[in-house]
Design goal:
Helix content of chain B: 55-70%
Distance between the termini of chain A: 50 Å
Strand order of the largest sheet of chain B: 1-2-3-5-4
Structural class of chain A: alpha/beta
Helix content of chain A: 40-55%
Radius of gyration of chain B: 34 Å
Structural class of chain B: alpha+beta
Number of domains of chain B: 2
Number of domains of chain A: 2
Radius of gyration of chain A: 17 Å
Order of helices and strands of chain B: HHHHHHHHHHHEHEEHEE
Number of helices of chain A: 11
Number of strands of chain B: 5
Shape of chain A: globular
Strand content of chain B: 5-15%
CATH architecture of the largest domain in chain A: 3-Layer(aba) Sandwich
CATH class of the largest domain in chain A: Alpha Beta
Strand order of the largest sheet of chain A: 2-1-3-4-5-6
Number of helices of chain B: 13
Number of strands of chain A: 6
Oligomer: heterodimer
Largest interface: A-B, 39 and 38 residues
CATH topology of the largest domain in chain A: Rossmann fold
Largest sheet of chain B: 5 strands, mixed
Chain lengths: ~220, ~450
Amino acid sequence: MTEPAPAEEAVSVVLVDDHALFRRGVRAELESLARRTVSVVGEAGSVDEAVAVIGHRRPDVVLLDVHMPDGGGAAVLTRTRPDHPDVVFLALSVSDAAEDVISVIRAGARGYVTKTISGRELADAIVRVKAGDAVFSPRLAGFVLDAFADRPGATGVVDPELDQLTRRERDVLRLLARGWSYKEIAAELVISVKTVETHVSSVLRKTQSSNRHELSRWASDRRLV
Amino acid sequence: MGDVDEATTLRTGTPPATGDAPAPAPEPAPEPAPAPAPAPTGPVIHRIRRRRQGSVIAGVTGGVADHLGVDVLRVRLVFVLLVAAAGAGFIAYAALWLFCPIEPRGVPRAVPPRERRQGLGLATLGVLLAFVISGLGGQLSGWVIGPLAVVVIGVALVWREADTGGAAVVGETGWRSRWLVGRRLGLLRLLAGALLVAMGIAVFLLGNVDLGQVQFGVLAALATLAGVVVITVPWWMRLVRELGSERRERIRGQERADIAAHLHDSVLQTLALIQKQAGEDTAGREVRRLARSQERELRAWLYGPPGGDAGRPAGSGDATLAAALATAAGEVEDDYGLRVAPVVVGDADLDPDTTALVAAAREAMVNAAKHAGVDEVDVYVEVEPDTVEVFVRDRGRGFDPDAVPEDRRGLAGSVHDRMTRHGGSVRLRTAPGEGTEVGLVLPRTRRGAPVPQEESR
């Protein structure tokens, strides 16, 4: 690797997954891409290792497995985020369960993608979370829409700022759930891509800090009961 | 309490009568022997289970007969004779009543009326015998025996009611609500029993005790307390039993969660890896298809229908739109070897309209799989109070909707017709090179409300 211009610098990534085979697969895939936008600077196979490696390598982005022994991705997030607030986490999981996805998002991850994602898409997602965007897979968008739905019987809104989505945010989420890209969404809603990103970030913030019953239930159900 | 395999213990073998509740296990019960013998197979501990049907007082003798494999009549005779032996029969009967659980509902049993008459006669005989013997003995005056008998009858009434009040229904409803709600007759019997007990105690106290005011008051309070304790014994026993079975359920659930976590961490990860690493040739595609299909099945077992939420138990039926759509998506995945990822927000019951919607969506998925030349199709379903929308989107070739080629007739024909027949509509967005999105909209004002989402999961 020669010295690229700072703007072209590859995003440094740490892989956290308790399956060595999977780490190797992801690493190989990211490194085989034609445009090296991402460079893997470290790997970790457990929560403790992850905390150590992240503290040592200070990566831009951590690719985080949701399911690991000793607390999983959420534990890594709660232990590293106070010391390294500038490290961005992207959850990578085989799980499709709402409580897994929502709990890791609420612990502070800025996005969620499934493990079957292609290498190119994964690299794109990494670059995007590095740039400050939220990465919503269609499934995550669906979960969030579901959680914020105003159904009869849903719990009342306590904090309208956090517990409700604006119409525009809802529109954006819907299109995300339909599998549209930001560019397509921007064109459809006649807004700029930047505005789409703002909406998605705002939805992410609400998902992380809202006290809606559905969200806190999904996030806490897992190991407690 | 011993954990007994109920299905084995209950092999009573009597011919199936029309039970009043669904049988717990679909036992074929092939040998119609009139004298039911417990199957003496294996090291299973057989507990005595009191008979629910055909009992005279509490089904104790019937249970003992089932357990020992002898005729009920003989057991009853022995009990009556034991009553003669200083009332030992009474005590034995009461103890067995307390400590043996009643059999679950729905055990088929044919009780000949003769057997019942005999039992009734023997029970009366036993009670009379007790009176006569105590009278002959003379240690106890009539003033003791009379009220005692009244108390005993009252207790028997209450206990009996507690038995039939649904002891076998182990469900989420509390034991309290089960006997309080409904069944006015049962309540009446309960009251009568309690009244009898109170009367017996009162008569006993009034007739036998000649004490000062204070002592009498204390004694009366104690007697009442004793009466309440005796009456409520069955419910305490049941509470203890249910706590036990609840604990067992919880342990079972825990085990299942552990297995799920393990499968998730090992098998699902491996399947994801296989899908990523499989090559692009024919063999690789086949491997990918297999891995995908296995992943889907395992996922459905672990988390319930895909696209929905976890927590809905797997196999809770294909009765909802989300589940039906997931099945359709799975079929298309398997048939055409591409990934179909349904995302479902909300859910609805399946009725003819939504069934047609699923069929139309499937058609759209098949179209995308056949013609778009992609290996992934996004499916998004949103159920709202007044509409159901389904979007099937691919990023493939696309086409010019004005010049519909022959091979897209399926879309125009079957999808469009299906939707219009059920009052829905189709919105098509496509252009050459830009992929295709088929939007299906179905109004749902005509039929029921959306499935309540919050608490039913």
